[in-house]
């Protein structure tokens, strides 16, 4: 099994690098147009083009596998991820707002799951020349450097990342949680790419991260964080739409020593 998983990983890295080249070329040439999904959720023509590129390559190479992708199959049924057919979970551009505004914090995210097990994750940041990846049981890496969480154990010294939803009506409880955390940590970051936030916890650049996100935002990054020694859990009850392993409702990822302290603040009375 390891050999086939290594083959999938090599293929995922190739796809991510090619997808990253598409993003850089599109932005250098300003060759993309903006559109808005429900509730002002930004999507660009490059999100769609990269999605089609990645999905068509996976379909050609592994026709029996399944794909759960933000842009082309965001409602794939829950049962599809439960059996032992490999599922590729794709976010063609994580950090679309950053991409469209000329920021560098942008990634393509590719995760593979089998029978609700995290098998591999690749998060490639083409504007930063960093490719984060992990294979279950084999550790996490940035380019070829092994990753390890920071080891921070004092919340007052921790840098904590989070994010905000497109849906403005959901903001009040989120701002309350941010306020509680900000009163107890060193500082907060809102970098705009959940996949990269997870990789930055893995790399020790962030000490904790919390946010409610979709499966494609966290499918690859959670394995990379786990393999680097992070603790992965949830501060909210999960909705029933997605299986636990790809469910990003109330996602909390941190160094092992910070996890309980952050969790306690997440659930403290307002
Ligand atoms: P996206 O770029 O694929 O849409 C950051 O908060 C994470 O949540 C990103 O992974 C981003 O994914 C998504 N997201 C949801 N709402 C967002 C918003 N208002 N601004 C930026 N990203 C948002
Ligand atoms: Ca996206």
From TrEMBL:
It comes from the Bacteria. Keywords: Hydrolase, Magnesium, Metal-binding, Transcription, Transcription antitermination, Transcription regulation. The keyword Transmembrane helix does not apply. Coiled coil: none annotated. Pfam families: Inositol_P. Gene3D superfamilies: 3.40.190.80, Fructose-1,6-Bisphosphatase, subunit A, domain 1. Its EC number is 3.1.3.25. The keyword Transferase does not apply. InterPro entries: IMPase, Inositol_monoP_metal-BS, Inositol_monophosphatase-like, Inositol_monophosphatase_CS. Belongs to the inositol monophosphatase superfamily. It catalyses: a myo-inositol phosphate + H2O = myo-inositol + phosphate. It comes from Marinomonas pontica. Its cofactor is Mg(2+). SUPFAM superfamilies: Carbohydrate phosphatase. This is Inositol-1-monophosphatase.
